[in-house]
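# step 3/5: fold
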Amino acid sequence: MLDPTKAGVSEQDWREATSSCEQLRVTEVVRETHDTCSLVFAVPDGREERFRYRAGQFLSFKVPHEGKVLTRSYSLSSSPECDSRLKVTVKRIEDGRISNWINDTVEPGEDLIVVPPAGLFVLNEKTRPIIFFAGGSGITPCMSLLKTALLTTDRRLRLVYANRDEHSIIFENELEMWARRHSGRLSIHHSLDDRDGFLDVKRIEHHAVDCLEGDFYLCGPGVFMDLVERALAALHVPSDQIHIERFVSPPDPDLKRTSEAVEMGEVSAVAPESITVILDGQEHEVEYEAEERVLGAAHRAGLKPPFSCGEGYCSCCMAKLSQGKVRMVVNDCLTPDLLEEGWILTCQSVCVSRNVRVEYPD
């Protein structure tokens, strides 16, 4: 069991940081490669509904570390269609405080503090082909999506998976198994830096050009993602066919507070006295204080809108802004298309107009 006091975190800070979390027990640690492991979790009786998830989503973990509560999100590599237990996969990164801690010290029987599943990198209801471009640990959500698509749809799938070398391929045996079982629908193309050179725009276009009508799912390191996006743009693939998952670590709590103070100071002059919140079909007039987040105002009024991480990366608190203006301090998950439609993260939205109306989806 994690002991926050040994890490220099006060009981009050730990309680506040983990108020929306659950405790999950690690039942198995799977060594996937020399620098990657998977954690398998048992969900406590009675909490199954809270941990129901869609393929492609992630879990977030709260870990006390050197006087701070750090939050890290790791994609689920399990599929709700064929895996009885939740599984996340964590690759060790250089100087990564939590990824190294997980790979070095977490063992079966340990309890971790977890935010329930969230994320928008999920399958749509189309029937067109799916092309996955995954780099390194970016295979994790793609693995969940791939298994689910094979088991619940008739869609044709192609995976282009880039790694440094053969020893770095995560899920190598499992991928081969799925390819054998579904040889008519799934094709896998490995790109290894030591064998093929770095994946470039020309080779990406080669893998994509005959599937331009398909959905493209992208996940991997920043440079890799930029290359794939550039190649798809050159091929004029519409934005609604491109689905992107970026691995982003939120800033440390003390750094975040400093940033927020600067951002909020710029908008406090036009704060409304109250805002309108639509929740479960009911309209509520909620008092609003300058520099307050919409979610915080709703909670202060006794309302219980959905939320999870509280840090702008999980999307659980999404709502539509139907009137007025807000400024989001952090947005690590809403795409430009969703922003254009009026969706906001209420945990990060500060009101910057006199009249604001926010509607939570039913």
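# step 4/5: annotate
The two ends are 37 Å apart (CA to CA).
# step 5/5: archive (pending)
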